[in-house]
Amino acid sequence: MTAAGQTPLLLPGATLGVLGGGQLGRMFTLAARVMGYRVVVLDPDALSPAGQVADIHLKADYTDAVALMRMGELCDAVTTEFENVPARSLETLAHRCRVAPGAAAVSVAQDRLAEKDLARRAGCETALYAPVSGPDDMASAWAAIDGPGLLKTRRLGYDGKGQARVDGPDGLAAAHAQLGHVPCLLEGFLPLEREISVVLARNPAGEIAFFPVAENRHRQGILDVSIVPARVTDEVAGSARRMAAGLAGSLEYVGVLAVEFFVLADGRVVFNEMAPRPHNSGHYTQDACVTDQFQQQVRALCGLALGDARQLSPVVMVNLLGDVWRPEPRWDLLLAHPGIKLHLYGKAEARPGRKMGHFNCLAPSLEEAIALAETARLELEIDR
Ligand code: AMP
């Protein structure tokens, strides 16, 4: 910060760092390089998707003191592409260069309990929840949620992993054992009508830009399709945006923040979880918005004005998981559609459930975009 309280602008030519070399880091790196920034990626994997396209790839662990020192020397600012980066690494870097989002925001998102507590304080509605660390708190946790629930690991859960359904108090011990006796959160099971997400960007001046609300469909706990704009009322979209902005403000957040919500049959909008980074459900912005979520991450990190987040076309984003590699998808069929934009992550090995890429289906109306996505999914045999 300058004496006037303003964050100096980092202009093209500056060097940006990203912790993590997965697909989100890759798309950030590509966006930053297109805008004229140099990019340093820290990731231990020599073949990481982001490392392949970076100016410099530091091949080391996220806790490697020497690599963090080097990154701090090389970079004017550092961001992160996944929430499980140790907060200590961000704190270490923050002594040497700008880091956004900060360690506090990232560490809250690492713990479902801290995240839910924060969401409540920031004015979000949540499911009923209670911590479960061992047999002693099971009875009180069950009493707190008042009905069937989901037991979720507090840390390192993603894509529906680290969860077990609990239908009665007797099932709690078995579910906790199934999850390895780690600290958990018991959540009341909600009647979901839809799942939606808000991706926003907040810059150091506190300005917020919202991307349109996405409607998300999952398969086996993994995001399958995002439909944008979400088919929800203005009230639902508005309350999701308000809650997401409340969270960002309470964290004095700088960067791109994704917040997932449930929409219930009675129209209530309930916070589920947040990610302190661009999000799979924001990939549609790459082809359908004036500014995409990765360009926006660059702008927020660099203290620039945020880009216009307006949507230019109805869109459906479809994820490509490794399951579709048998051995390689029929790209000829997919790319025969003029309205389809393909994004691949440069991962050498396709494994079931592994995110390999996605494609965006653009059309003049949402109905046509949905139909195009259906056709492409059938051609690629995505549901097989
Ligand atoms: P999560 O990892 O918390 O995003 O949960 C993965 C998926 O499980 C969500 O996308 C929902 O489909 C479902 N889910 C999670 N929490 C609940 C809940 N409290 N009630 C009903 N379904 C849930």
* H/E series: EHEEHEHEHHEHEEHEEEEEHEEHHEHEEH
- CATH names the topology of the largest domain as D-amino Acid Aminotransferase, Chain A, domain 1
Number of domains: 3
CATH architecture of the largest domain: 2-Layer Sandwich
CATH class descriptor name of the largest domain:
Alpha Beta
Quote the average pLDDT: 95
Which shape, going by the Cα principal axes? globular
Structure class: alpha+beta
Unreliable stretches, pLDDT < 50, 5 or more residues?
A: none
Largest sheet: 9 strands, antiparallel
Report how far the terminal alpha carbons are from each other.
53 Å
Bound molecules: adenosine monophosphate
Rg (CA only): 21 Å
In total, the number of strands is 18
Helix content: 25-40%
Walk me through the structure.
- The protein has helices at residues 23-34, 65-74, 87-94, 103-108, 112-121, 138-145, 171-178, 234-250, 285-288, 293-301, 331-334, 366-380, and strands at 15-19, 38-42, 56-58, 77-80, 98-99, 129-132, 149-153, 163-166, 184-188, 192-202, 208-210, 214-219, 222-228, 255-264, 269-275, 315-321, 340-344, 355-362.
- The protein has 384 residues and is an alpha+beta fold.
- The strands form 3 sheets. Strands 10, 11, 12, 13, 14, 15, 16, 17 and 18 form a 9-stranded antiparallel beta sheet that branches. A 5-stranded parallel beta sheet has the order 3-2-1-4-5, sandwiched between helices.
- The longest helix is centred in the middle third of the chain and has 17 residues, at 234-250.
- The protein contains 12 helices and 18 strands.
- It has 3 domains: 15-99, Rossmann fold (3-Layer(aba) Sandwich); 128-188, ATP-grasp fold, A domain (Dna Ligase, domain 1); 192-383, 2-Layer Sandwich (D-amino Acid Aminotransferase, Chain A, domain 1).
- Bound molecules: adenosine monophosphate.
- Adenosine monophosphate binds next to strand 7, strand 10 and strand 15.
